[in-house]
Write a structure and sequence with these properties.
Blueprint lengths: L6 H12 L11 H13 L14 H10 L3 H9 L13 E6 L2 E7 L4 E5 L2 E4 L4 E6 L2
Antiparallel strand pairs: 1-2, 1-5, 2-3, 3-4
Helix pairs in contact: 1-2
Length: 133
């Protein structure tokens, strides 16, 4: 994927727009948030054919399983993963955070994901995989 020339401004605008938008399955969960970042950076919607297909944790889990799991789904839509050392701002990461596997977005240090009160920097995640955007 090729980033748009003004991606830093678009990334910042997206983060500002989500500061107080709480986590919601199917509209602002970890996968839709990451896909929205990809749209902001590239103009391409990696989740286009999945949007509107789930609205609960159980439906999301069933979809993820049907796609072969999160790593397989992310590879299908974003290409091959790279080592965490190559992560840059705006890249998508699969992390282990407080015992849960979460899709997050790299932000030059912390990784970001939607939380109960809006976009949150994850406390101390272990990055499992990274996909370049």
């Amino acid at each position: 994927m090729t980033r748009l020339h003004d991606w830093p401004l678009r990334f910042e605008a997206l983060l500002k727009s989500r500061v107080s938008v709480p986590f919601a399955w199917g509209t602002n969960d970890c996968c839709t948030f990451a896909a929205d970042v990809v749209i902001a950076l590239t103009g391409a919607d990696a989740m286009q054919d999945l949007r509107g297909t789930y609205s609960s944790e159980a439906e999301a889990e069933a979809l993820i399983q049907a796609l072969g799991g999160l790593p397989e789904a992310l590879t299908r839509y974003l290409g091959e993963a790279v080592p965490a050392a190559y992560a840059n701002t705006g890249d998508v990461a699969l992390v282990l955070n407080e015992g849960q596997t979460v899709v997050a977005v790299c932000n030059g240090g912390p990784v970001l994901a939607p939380g109960p009160r809006g976009v949150a920097a994850l406390s101390d995640p272990s990055i499992l995989f990274v996909w370049k955007v």
